[in-house]
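Ticket closed. Logging final result for Acetyltransferase (GNAT) family protein.
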Amino acid sequence: MTGLVPASALDRDQAARTRTVYEEAFPRQLRTPFEQLTDHRPDERLLTLLDGGVPVGIAFIRELGTTGTVFLRYFAVDRSRRGQGVGTRLWHALCAELAGFALLYLDIEDPEESGIDEVERTVRQWRVTFYARLGAIVLPVRNYTPPHGAQRHPMLLLAADLRAEVPGPLRPGGLAHAVRSVYEYRYGITENDPLVVTTLTRSGLR
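Final structure:
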């Protein structure tokens, strides 16, 4: 079998390999326990890209309430298959899977963050370039800071239009809506939270 399938459709070996792909792609401090990815919350989906029946990539998404948009929580390719176009295949398969939604959001680490070394900066810039090539844009919002534990770092918020006929986040009012939707439905904090207020204010959206 080749293509994108829900994790619930995998056999035991495929599920184990999916877990390995996920855990090898992200450091422990950035990972949600794998069991929580497969507990079948109605607004979340773990999807696996199969190549000849072998898992080669994963995508984990959450629907953002009733906004008609989706947040990409995790996106990873088997490290032995990187540089072979698998990431591009996974992205296109994911966009096809999400037909009917308006926008796909994701956040990534900022290559311009101070205090990081050149190796890390290069990796982060590669991610920006990768997603840009696939049609995602960096949204012009400032101080977007996901509430990850005690150590919080501003990140880049990206968006990709899933339907060409639907106006994107750069329409009037769209940026503020994007910020509020991601903070509320991905991270569980409302527009009155200081983090949200700061992002909206520094982005000139409030």
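The mean pLDDT is 90. No further action required.
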